[in-house]
Amino acid sequence: MNVLFVASECAPFVKTGGLADVIGSVPKALEQLDNTVKILIPAYPALKDWIKHGDLLLELEDLFGGPARVYSVRAKGLNLLLLEAAHLFDRKGTIYLDEEGYDWEDNAIRFGALSLIGAKIGLDGIGGWKPDVINAHDWQAGLVPVYLRQSGRKAPPVVMTIHNIAFQGLFDGALRGPLGLSSGLFTPDGFEYWGHIGYLKGGIAMADKITTVSPTYAEELLTPEFGMGLEGLLRSRQSDLTGILNGIDLDIWNPETDKALTKTFTAKTLKRKAANRTRVEEKFGLASNPDAPLFCVISRLTTQKGLDLLLKSIPTLIKRGARLAVLGTGDKKLEDDYRAMADRFPESVSVEIGYDEELSHMLQGGSDAILIPSRFEPCGLTQLYGLRYGTIPVVARTGGLADTVIDANSAALTASCATGIQFSPITIETLEKAINRTCDLFKEPKHWRVMMRRAMEQEVGWDHSAKLYKQLFSSLIEERAD
Ligand SMILES: Nc1ncnc2c1ncn2[C@@H]1O[C@H](COP(=O)(O)OP(=O)(O)O[C@H]2O[C@H](CO)[C@@H](O)[C@H](O)[C@H]2O)[C@@H](O)[C@H]1O
């Protein structure tokens, strides 16, 4: 089966968050199942060099104000279709933000262009290759099914995947003209959202199937609390919505081979993990204390991730002799508040504001526990990396966090199946309790070691979920053929 992915980021080339990890890993698992997956992605500066190794397959004189080309290249085990359109993607700043940190003014056009080319490849194929199914990811690819629908032509089915409904891609309705969108579909049943163009909304309304990244989030999305205004539409499409849990790339995230670690380790050589802890303590300038856990956070610093709650719980953590190493970037106020906390308690709290892939591996390798107090979390990947590295996840019971961590309650401890700590409802008090429970458990090395081993044994790769994607794609293709 031929599958076209359309997405705005892909690890290890361009990454601002978990979307990139998924786009960079699930295609490899699908290829193992005898599928060909090609990923259409803009040729941002970080990807431009790959063009030299690519084949030119498509040339357009004008794509929303400038010329565009699509190159095909095999890079790091992935088939990329690089959309080169210098006027849209060859810029300094980040892939979504300008150098001052504001959204690029023309993001609607930039990702409208990505979606338009995705639809074109769906309709006409590229270089003799034709997708049997298209998987569009997040709002940046939300217009793919819209452009297909308005073409009126026979097109492959589309699966729209929601990685985070908080980002919907809402833009001025007047952009319909410049984007070449049909006014006939600009209705509440189509891609209109209260007078705006809703990229994700259009995608959800017009895709053949909708997936999200965990079963629990698929249920949560149907409620006003989590659906963020799209719960009604999603309820109307409930029978087409499934939650397929994310996996991780087991080669990139492997404590047995990870080059960012001081000492590599396995579930059988857990003692070797201690050297990594010492390295993190040194690197972050934290005091060492063998009697209390070293916690880490690797995250966007936002209220979604509950990091304002954690800030208030830090005194509890310090009281227990625990330490906290934070790696993150995001809301300026939270960045300042965390820096201030680190200045106040330099031996107990240390913060690295920035984005650093290698440091994130080092932290997973050297910390005892990872804190993820998210208010909502579609799936979450850092708890999966934590499980893989025996770094106990301490998580809010929501979305994919609820689906992937087994709480260390007394029954689970007795049955030796616990893999982490969960807390609910998501408040400062329950988070503090969870921190205290983690510190208590850490003082029982036998329980703690069993939990680490269980965590490391969890199936966190793509094997199972890639099969579910394949089944979903196959069923759609069969339906189309009937
Ligand atoms: N400062 C930093 N330095 C280095 N690495 C950093 C970092 N901050 C974050 N990261 C990395 O970025 C990724 C974050 O992925 P998550 O899945 O946890 O959340 P995100 O909200 O981005 O993704 C959304 O999409 C994914 C994918 O579907 C869902 O799992 C998730 O719930 C949803 O919110 C991880 O690989 C993490 O290690």
Automatic annotation (TrEMBL):
Annotated ranges, domain Glycosyl transferase family: 281-440
Binding site residues for ADP-alpha-D-glucose: 15
Top EC class of this enzyme: transferase
Domain Starch synthase catalytic residue range list: 2-235
Catalysed transformations (reactions): [(1->4)-alpha-D-glucosyl](n) + ADP-alpha-D-glucose = [(1->4)-alpha-D-glucosyl](n+1) + ADP + H(+)
Associated pathway: Glycan biosynthesis; glycogen biosynthesis
CDD domains: GT5_Glycogen_synthase_DULL1-like
EC numbers: 2.4.1.21
Gene3D superfamilies: Glycogen Phosphorylase B
GO-annotated molecular function: alpha-1,4-glucan glucosyltransferase (ADP-glucose donor) activity; alpha-1,4-glucan glucosyltransferase (UDP-glucose donor) activity
Gene Ontology biological-process entries: glycogen biosynthetic process
Membrane-spanning segments: none
Keyword tags: Glycogen biosynthesis, Glycosyltransferase, Transferase
One cellular component term from this protein's GO annotations in UniProt: cytosol
Family: Belongs to the glycosyltransferase 1 family. Bacterial/plant glycogen synthase subfamily.
Function: Synthesizes alpha-1,4-glucan chains using ADP-glucose.
Name the record gives this protein: Glycogen synthase
Gene from which the chain derives: glgA
